[in-house]
Each structure stands twice: as C-alpha cells, then as structure tokens.
Amino acid sequence: MHLNRPSDFHSSRKVVIIGFFLITGLIFLVQLFHIQVVDPAYKLSASSNVLRHLTDYPARGLIYDRNGELLVYNEARYDLMVIPQQVRDIDTTAFCDLLNIDPAVFESRLLQARRHSPFRASVFERQISKNTFAAFQEKLFRFPGFFVQPRTLREYTYPIAAHTFGYVGEAGPSVISNDPYYRPGDYIGISGIEKAYEEELRGKKGVRIRMVDALNRDIGPYQQGRFDTIATAGKDIYTTLDAELQIYGETLMQNKRGSIVAIEPSTGEILALVSSPSYEPGLLVGRVRTRNYRMLQNDTLKPLFNRALMAQYPPGSVFKVVNTLVALQEGVVDLSTRYSCSGAYYAGPITIRCRDHPNPVDVFSSIKHSCNSFSSVAFRNILDRPHFENMQEAFNTWRRHVGSFGFGSIFGSDLPYELSGLVATSDYYDRLYGTRGWRSLTIISLGIGQGEIGTTPIQLANLSATVANRGIYYTPHVVKGIGDPDSSIDLNRLPNVTTIDAEHFNVMAEAMHRVVSDGTGRFSLIPGIEMAGKTGTVQNPHGENHSVFIAFAPVDNPQIAISVVVENAGYGSTWAAPIASLMIEKYLNREVNRTWFEQRILDANFLTPQP
Length: 611
Known about the structure:
By secondary structure, this protein is of the alpha+beta class. It contains 21 helices and 22 strands. The protein has 2 domains: 51-239, Penicillin-binding protein 2a (Domain 2); 243-289 and 305-603, Beta-lactamase (3-Layer(aba) Sandwich). Helix content is 35%, strand content 19%.
C-alpha cells in the first residue's frame, strides 16, 4: 500500500487555490469590461456631472363644455432650476436684476437648495413668464448651475365654474409618499374636476438627458436621445356643462348668496352648477395661488365654499312634494281627499300658520297654494296608521321613502366633497325623547320641510328631475366623455328607482304645473313654455328666510330640471322662482325676451344693505 506524500498533497492544494483566484479575477475582469465598455448605462451614471436630466412635464388635458367649447387650457411657464455644486463665479447683481429679486433672496434660496442637495437640481424660481424667460434665456450661459424647466399652467376661457373645475397645486408630502408617480415640485388636482379626473388629466412624464459644456451651454442630447422617454399629454375632458347657461347663471347670482343647479333629467348630466359668491378660477393659478387662497379663505362671504354641493338647508315647502307623494303611496290620501284649512294647523299647543287660500284643500290645491295644514295632516296620518306596531316602524317606513329620492346620502358621482345632507333617524329621536317619548306631533315640523332635516341644492335639483322622470333619476354627474366627446365614462348609468309608483308622479307633475300656471309661482310663468315648479320659503333663525324653488320644463317632455336657493331673500316665489324661470327660458330658447324681468334680478343685492 502506497501513501501520498505530504509534498504532493500541498502541491495539489496550491493548484486549487491558484485556480480559484484566477477564475475569480477573470470574472471581475469580464464584469469590469462590461461596465466600462459594453453597458452605456454605467457611462451615463459616471458622466452625471456633465449631463442634465430634464423632466418633460406633459400638457394637462383640456376641458370642454357639452357643446365642444374650450373652457380650460394650458399656458407655458418656466421653472428656473439650480444645481448648487455647479454655481460658481456668477454676476449675482445681473442675475437678480434679470429676475427682479433681492440679492438677499438669492443667497437664501441658494443656501436652501444646497441644504436640500448640493448635487441635485431643485427649483430656484417658479413659473417664470414667457417674457421674463425670453430675456433670461439669452444670458443663461453666464450663470453656471442654472437651467430652465418648461411647465404649463391652467388658463380659462371664461372666469366661470371655479368650484366645478377646481384647481391644481403642488403635490404635498403625503401624496408623494403614497404615490410613486409624484415627486417634489409636481402638480396635482386639488379639487373639482381637476381632482376627480387627475389620473386622466395629468398624462405621463418624460425625461430628456442633455449634455452641457463647462459654460453651462446645452450641446445636444446624450447618445442621440437613446435614453430619453417621451411625455404623453393628458386626456381631454368633455363636461356636461353648458357654458352659456353657466355664464348666465353666475350673472344672475351676482350680489347674492346661494346656488343654482340645473340637470338634464333624462341623463343626470349637470347643465349648470353655480355657487355664489364665487371667485375667478385664475386666482388660484401660479405663483399668486397661495396668497390668493389665503385671501379667499379669509373672505367673510366664503367664496371657496361650494354651496351647490355642501350647503345644507331645511328644504321648506319644497319638501311637500315628497311628503305628498309618500302619503299617496301609503294610501293616506287620494285625489278625493280634502282637508280644511282655516289659516293655520292647530294641534294642542302647536300652531303652524298657513297662507290665505281657497278652502277646503285637495292634493292639487295643496301643492298649488303650498298649504301647511294639508301637509301637516297628511304627515301625521302617515305615521299614525294603525297597522304600524310602534312609532319607530312608522317613521322608518317614511324615512325609507324619503331616502329613495337620494336624501340623506351622497350620490357617489364625480363631484368631490359632496355632502349627504341630513334625515334624522328613529334612533336619534329615541336618544332624545326615549323610545316611548315621541310621536307624530313631536316631529310634525318635518311635514312642512323643517326640523331635523337638511338637504343640499343638488339633492333638490335631483328631486325636480325625479318628478320630471316620473319616479326615477340618474346619478347627477359633470363629465360627459374622456378623450372623446362621445366616449362612455364609468358611471352608474342605470336609473335609480324611487319607492313611489309612477302614477303618483303624474299627479305631482300636474300639481306642480298648476303652481306655475295659477299658483304661488305664477309670477314666473314663461310665455310659450309649460313649466312645473314648487316654491319654498325656508325658515332661518339667523336672519331673513331663504328663498327656494325647484322646477322642470317642458312638463310633457322635460329637458331641464333645476333648483335655486337664494339665502336671506324671503319668499321662494319672489326671487328663486324668477331666477329658475330665466334659466329655463335661456336654456330652451337660447335667449331671454323678458328683459324687465331679468333686470329686476340683476339689480337685486342681498350682500349689502339697500339704501
């Protein structure tokens, strides 16, 4: 038997170790060759000190009205960027003169940029105008470390629909941390359509890599643009708004607090959405946005508050439409029912005053003359029906009917920040009075649209559209198409069906027609147009009552449904009804012939005391 000698063992081991190091070295050499010669991406990284990465911000999508008229477009602006490490030996005085800034501001901004990162670009001066940029561009080579980043800002064809369009602002830290698309300095929709359709409007950013010489001059694309990516413009939005009607509505509501909401009943498309007082949308664009926002926020008239979607009022007599429909559905009243009205409704210690009108009152005349007595009796009889086991069951039945009209909940459409309004629950009354401590008389004010109920103007317009459609409504929305006016957007297109039978809506449509033909709304009758409506005067503990009116027209082929609220203006028949009739005339005829009627509204001022 032979044994390996120790020298042979050590010799073999030496060969293995040498081989291992040779193979490892060869691998490193191959990888180094790939990095330095083959793969240009590493060249790109190593050459970052002579390359400039420019973000190509896409043009934001345009916004049009329902007729294809351009409403929101883009205007070129320029951000001046700085890379602090590259700033050297510049004429600070000349630089500051070109931008009209103080030298102390220059030093402060440069220090701030250096703290952010000496080697990365950050914004030095935002949104330079085209004129300033033209003068600055010629001398840019004198200021190493500075370059210009093209941007766009929103511009508006008309100073209208500020609440509906919304505005664009810089993405905040929370947005940036939650969405990798956004980086510091990027813009995002903050409210309105700009927010609701941000992903469609924003497009897709691109990147250009440019080579820059020692004098800060652009000498062309890197690698013939091989690593550039192209920006993709945002999609255009086609709204349901009628620009002409929107302009007219905002004109009528000047010097008034309140709102107008007009809807096409057959589709739920919003034709006009007016909140007054409002503001010019251009005030929240560009470098002045922060200052102007603060100014608007501090304005006691609250122009930033979107009354059409967020103001909540008791509906007043307008709600008699709903209560009467519920009474018809529950069999409490029919067309032969008549109640007496002696000028007020009396029940123990409770007295609800009513206007002077012919007596007795049936379904048609109760709506026509807005009778409080009829509505109060009908409401009590709904809740006091003997087949209900208790008051909670009776009230929940009534509330279920009311909820089917969209009251007490949001529509869940494309309108950000919509509020739900309020319809009290039986649990609320149980907590307030105890389970056996309340009855129909306790909440009798609900019969005339007062008490523990709050509605938004868009809900009132939807009520009008529901009657116009004889019992159904389509979710109100403000966008018609994306990218193409005939495109289909992802909204609930199915009709929402109320709990009330269509035959009762036929009765209500006729009753509302009589309101305008020879009832409380006759002052607002439109020559040649059959209009149905309902006046409302909403009690306001803080001042003059609110004027409310809902309507639709034509009665037999409704093309527009509308709600108007004028705060602190008094009777619904005096101010809200005339405004609604003018809007309907404008939409259906495209012109208004009752100029004296129109002038009366234009001259009205409810914001300042009249002399």
